[in-house]
Amino acid sequence: MATDYDAPRKNEDDSESIEALKERVPDKLSGSVDVDDADNPSGFELPGADLSDLELDVVVLPPQQDEFTCVSCFLVKHRSQLDHEDALGPICVDCAA
């Protein structure tokens, strides 16, 4: 048997009026907002949050033997990223391109 999927489908259950549907749903839920946000775990800070009272401890390592600081981009890179040394200092491959 062929089915016409474009034809409107009506059952006896669809004949209920909007008022009858509204009576079944309690009014106390109509104006409430879901306060529990499952997408935002409690430990997650939103962008723009005030973090001025937060104290951070960062360990700064001294330059290693196989690293250099590019004088163009000022990033610390591995010696394998060294393109050439200028009169000012070392230049990385990214800045030399």
Description:
The chain contains 2 helices and 4 strands. By secondary structure, the protein is α+β, with helices and mostly antiparallel strands. Strands 1-2 form a two-stranded antiparallel ribbon. A two-stranded antiparallel sheet has the order 3-4. β3 (82-85) and β4 (90-92) form a beta hairpin. The mean pLDDT is 79. This is DUF4193 domain-containing protein.
Lay out the secondary structure.
Blueprint: H1 18-24, E1 67-69, E2 76-78, E3 82-85, E4 90-92, H2 93-96
Antiparallel strand pairs: 1-2, 3-4
Give me some keywords for this one:
97 residues; two-stranded antiparallel sheet; two-stranded antiparallel ribbon; DUF4193 domain-containing protein; DUF4193
Summarize this, please?
With 97 residues, the protein is an alpha+beta fold. It has helices at residues 18-24, 93-96; strands at 67-69, 76-78, 82-85, 90-92. The chain contains 2 helices and 4 strands; from the N terminus they run H-E-E-E-E-H.
* Low-pLDDT residue spans: none
> Span from first to last CA?
68 Å
Q: Helical region count?
A: 2
| Percentage of residues in strands | 5-15%
Approximate shape: elongated
**Order of SSEs, N→C?**
HEEEEH
Largest sheet: 2 strands, antiparallel
- Quick check: average pLDDT? 79
Cα-atom radius of gyration? 32 Å
